[in-house]
Amino acid sequence: MTLTESRIVLSCRKVSVSFDGFYALKEMDFSLAHGELRFLIGPNGAGKTTMLDAICGKVKPRSGSVLFHSGRSGDEAVDLTRMKEHGIAACGIGRKFQAPSVFSALTVWENMEIALKQKRDVVSLLFAKLTGVQRSAIEEALAMVGLAFKADRKAGALSHGEKQWLEIGMILLADPQVLLLDEPVAGMTDEETEKTGLLLQEIIKNRSVVVVEHDMDFVRQFSSKVTVMHEGTLLTEGTMAEVQRNERVAEVYLGKMAG
Q1: pLDDT digits (tens, 9 = 90+) for 185-236
Q2: What is the pLDDT of residue 71?
Q3: Mean pLDDT across the chain, nearest whole number?
Q4: Using CA atoms, how far apart are residues 128 and 172, in angstroms rounded to an integer?
């Protein structure tokens, strides 16, 4: 099955979000297929992060719908705009913000334990025994993000890139169908950026990923389809080569995407 034949897992229809009369999103349309890695690009203030916020429930749209197609056939759809943030996460939407959020004083493994059990009492979690299934889940997630050999290392001692990977691993333990990432390679070294791209390609073997990104070299290297936003609306979609040839995109970026 090709990507174009894959079922749609997420569809946003005419989503509008306003803050005190200012529209950060204006009837934005967006759809995502199973197994797709989609990049959202556009100038600062285009509404990219607000789009992720609307999907995960951090902000509530003034109008429009965000449909999550949870069934294998894609026919079962729930409108996420009617749900609270925690309910959306439980449905299968995972969100990672730009700055990594980990417990620096705890080890990599302990961070994964807390993420797996999803409770507030950190101390009791560290003394609770893991089941074999839970231990295997943590081991598998750490192997995927490349941190298995640093399981006993304090999270605070990790590099910036490794902290980002740790948080991605923590989110993966919830087994989301859709993963939303906001500028995941910001501040990374070239080597870490390359590893992150390869990680995302591994992740989409079983789920879908949406990435807000400003690093155009990273987007060129790892994207198959990009969505260009401008002033809260959909400007165009296509391959990176296609959108770079678009005169309107060139105008919006003032030549910054050329070359």
Answers
A1: 999 999 999 999 999 999 999 999 999 999 999 999 999 999 999 999 999 9
A2: 60
A3: 89
A4: 21
Helix (H) or strand (E) holding 19: strand 8-19
Q: Which conformational region is residue 237 in: left (phi greater than 0), alpha (psi within -120 to 50 degrees), or beta?
A: beta
Distance of CA 126 to the CA centre of its chain: 28
The answer to whether residues 106 and 155 touch, using CB atoms and an 8 Å cutoff, is yes
pLDDT score, position 122: 52
Out of 30-34, 176-180, 243-247, least confident range: 243-247
Instruction: Tell me 131's DSSP state.
Output: P
* HSE-up (13 A, CA, CB side) for residue 155: 23
Residue with tokens 């040839």: 245
CA dist 255 and 259 (Å) reads: 9
Q: Name the pTM for this structure.
A: 0.89
| Residues 153 and 110: beta-carbon distance below 8 Å | no
Q: Say if residues 171 and 93 touch (Cβ distance below 8 Å).
A: no
Contacts of 214 (CB under 8 A, 6+ apart): 41, 183, 186
The b/e string for 65-90 (b: 16+ C-beta within 10 A; e otherwise) is ebbbbeeeeeeebbebbebebeebbe
Residue 230 phi, psi (nearest 5)? -150, 125
User: Given the DSSP bridges, would you call strands 37-41 and 208-212 parallel, antiparallel or unpaired?
Assistant: parallel
Per-residue pLDDT at 241 exceeds 70: yes
Q: Pick from 225, 244, 247: which is nearest to 32 by CA? A: 225
Residue type, 83: M
Partners of 182 in the beta sheet?
Answer: 212
Share of the chain above pLDDT 90, in %: 75
Structure tokens at 224: 């198959």
